[in-house]
Amino acid sequence: IRRSEAAKIEVRQSLSICCAMTTAAPAKVKTQYEAIIGLETHCQLKTATKIFCNCSTEFGAEPNHHVCPICMGMPGVLPVLNQTVLEYAVKAGLALNCQIADYSKFDRKQYFYPDLPKNYQISQYDLPIAEHGWLEIELVDAQGEPVRKKIGITRLHMEEDAGKLVHGGSERLSGSTFSLADYNRAGVPLCEIVSEPDLRSGVEAAEYAQELRRILRYLEVCDGNMQEGSLRCDVNVSIRPVGTEKFGTKVEIKNMNSFNAIQRAIDYEIERQIAELEAGGRIIQETRLWDEASQQTISMRVKEGSSDYRYFPEPDLTPIEVSEEQLDQWQLQLPELPAQKRHRYETELGLSAYDARVLTDDRPVAEYFEATVAQGANPKQAANWIMGDITAYLKTEKLAITDLPLSPTGLAELIGLIEAGTISSKIAKDLLPELLAEGGSPKTLVEQKGLTQISDSSALAGLIDQVLQDHPQELAQYRAGKTKLQGFFVGQIMKRSGGRADPKLTNQLLAEKLKG
Asked: Are 83 and 45 in contact (CB under 8 A)?
């Protein structure tokens, strides 16, 4: 007999109860676990040249075209710190509420790998440029209400990037494999930002990474393009029984190129570790890769202990001292950050948490919105136009909002025409494609096309009478109780007026006529 899944569960539960009564064995209580998650984020700084030499940081250049004796680690060369790297790192630290060190230094991190031409990486170890900060993330609870949580930042330090290995060949097909080294990326400046283990789910981790990218983009210190490797996240995940303080064995996950992948990889890894422990196994310290095709993490290498990088102070670079005057100057240059904008949009402009979040996700979009409101546009109407029709157009045309011919002044003028009753929303939508493509004044365009809204009661009454006369069958059906036909009549009136009839006045006059 085929049973439903619910019936099968009931049968299994009944059997379990019977067995427990027969054997008198105590029921096993399932252990509840919580995840402990921390992120290490590498952010490429948006400088024109590398951290210790004058080579270009251009992405996508021919392999090994942006290299020199310094970034290739030739004997006798000396690195010189790019001052903009220090400026960007300090600004990032300030935006993340970190304590900026008045004295820090660079160190040599010793390890051998083919994409590291010097066989060591210049980084910062015990005296980083910034420590002990935090950022705030916003989540949504079960009732749809925003929930805020602070995530600690352990440290932010400067370092140089390694090169890139490109693997080719096939042992199975050609009988050989090979790796090619591209050193264009070697020496590109990085900020490594390490979070505290304050995250508890894949959703929180993905939101943390997104908020971090928003902040860096607002500062214009990193473009945050994950597909180009400008922002790379390594995740550390462990689990422990709820109520215990000791951390479990952590597993590192690499190879995630989107925020969605970060969330899915963490959620999978949490379930994998729980299943392993419940089956009587143990978690080993290892590095795993996220495989997008199979939607699972795969073991890459086992870590029996922490690596010994033999750090020592970089002898070719002097220590860094940031004066209070310089720190104050950089502090004053910080823009209003995403969290501050969201709060202001909600409290001062009356926008919903959702609208504020969408508008502030990208700084140029937020600036376009604010410029529109500054020209007198209603904030909610401006938000609706930008988040709706304008965003759809930008996606279709693959444009940035800074490339849009329609200026904030033009959008404010269009919204003003609607609110003044000069044109209807439908006419505005009809005009929008031309305005988006060519710009110009909406008011001038309305006058040229003769699209001024019909708001004269007698003119509208004549249109309504004509429509009712042309549709006697529908009129009889309406008066027989099919009141939804009012929308049909409105549509016919709009069609006959070329979309120029005032919708509000039309509905009012039509209702009076239909009742008569």
From this structure: no
Longest dimension (CA), the chain: 98
Residue 13, pLDDT above cutoff 50: no
Among 79-88, 121-130, 164-173, 286-295, the range scoring the smallest mean pLDDT is 164-173
pLDDT in tens, 137-155: 998 887 777 889 999 999 9
Instruction: Give the span between the Cα atoms of 48 and 188, in whole angstroms.
Output: 10
Nearest one of 508, 514, 407, 409 to 460, comparing CA atoms: 508
Local structure of residue 36 (DSSP, 8 states) = E
Residue 92 structure tokens: 């990032």
Q: Strands, DSSP E only, in 312-426? A: 312-313, 320-321
Q: Are 503 and 490 in contact (CB under 8 A)?
A: yes
At 2 the pLDDT is 39
pLDDT at 150: 96
Burial of 265 (0-12, 13-18, 19+ CB in 10 A): buried
Tokens coding 4? 């439903």
**Angstrom distances, CA of residue 422 to CA of 81, 418, 435, 501:** 60, 6, 17, 10
Query: In this structure, what DSSP letter does residue 124 have?
Result: -
Task: Specify the 3-state DSSP secondary structure of 169.
Answer: strand
| Count of other CB atoms within 10 angstroms of residue 467 | 23
Rounded Cα–Cα distance for residues 123 and 396 (Å) = 42
**Is residue 435's pLDDT more than 90?**
yes
d(CA 45, CA 57): 9
Min mean pLDDT across 151-165, 274-288, 492-506 is at 492-506
At which residue do the structure tokens 């000069």 appear? 422
Alpha-carbon span 119 to 112, nearest angstrom:
5
- Whether residue 429 contacts residue 392, with contact meaning beta carbons closer than 8 Å, is answered with no
Structure tokens at 277: 């422990």
Residue-level pLDDT at 175: 64
The pLDDT score that the predictor gives to residue 164 is 93
From the list 239, 251, 248, the residue with the least C-alpha distance to 299 is 251
193 closest CA partner among 75, 13, 43: 43
Where is 477: in which H helix or E strand?
helix 472-479
Q: What percent of the chain has pLDDT over 70?
A: 91
